[in-house]
Amino acid sequence: MIALLLFFLAALASPFRSKSRLEAENAALRHQLIVLRRKMQGRVRLTNDDRWFFIQLYRWFPSILQVLTIIRPETLVRWHRAGFRCYWRWKSRSVGGRPLLETDLRMLIRRISIENPLWGGPRIHGELLKLGFEVAQTSVAKYMVKRRGPPRQAWRTFLRNHAPDIAAMDLFVAPTIGFDLLYAFVIVRLDRRDLVWINVTANPTAEWIARQITEAFPWDDAPQYLIRDRDRIYGTVVTRRLRAMGIRDKPTAPASPWQNGFAERLIGSIRRECVDHFVVLGEAHLRRMLREYARYYNGIRTHRSLDKDAPITRPVQRIGIVQSHAILGGLHHHYVRV
Hints:
disordered N terminus, Nucleotidyltransferase, domain 5
């Protein structure tokens, strides 16, 4: 009954259909009959010509989806999309011309462009010619990193160029077993994060600080700038000593410890990796521990900011048996090959 009703409705709507649409639907129905007559056993087998025929009809007259019975409408749509992809893959194929650059060379051009923001295409092209790469300058310009603004150095490069001439100093407190307070004084260079000087006292004074600075830096190895906070202990005696050594004093803003971040980070490492794990017996005991930790920090401990190297460059060992040496009573270990 439902099929008869649908046939009746289709018959009523047929006068309003265009003649070309009816012919397309009739062609689709006839081709389905041809496919079914060709069927021998099992499922219906469609050839590439059959698929091409249905796809072209679908492109011209999408209404044939209503009369398809041997295939699903979504199957025909999937064929159409696959044919669309194949067509544009064929359209975008290489038709000759200049050969493409190798992947390694393209990556090298991008790497040079990123590492040298002040270089243009001619400079990179000249560098590649000296490395033995035969490449056109237009190809170099094509694979360079595109920048919006004018070429300029990064903040990391700027800081790295000035870090060798900058050092930082600070004081921190360590309690003893007798509830006394000892003061540890540290100086760190910003270039390699190396701990230049560390010492302990129970009564810090400006004269003592000035003497530590003199002992930390020889006259021919003093930095140009020294960062410190605004503690009152850095009095006139300290500033005069710095001026006499050719060091420019750079105090931080009030209540701004982040402006002396290198020294603060070093003090945090000393606390987490050394002082917090010991009961300080006295001034001599704390000085011995801190100096042993300073040797470990400078020559053994790897730093992420130094590409997993120590401040005093540690050689790579590839041959031998790995052995460990205890540091600070086994709190840390040094692994070497022997």
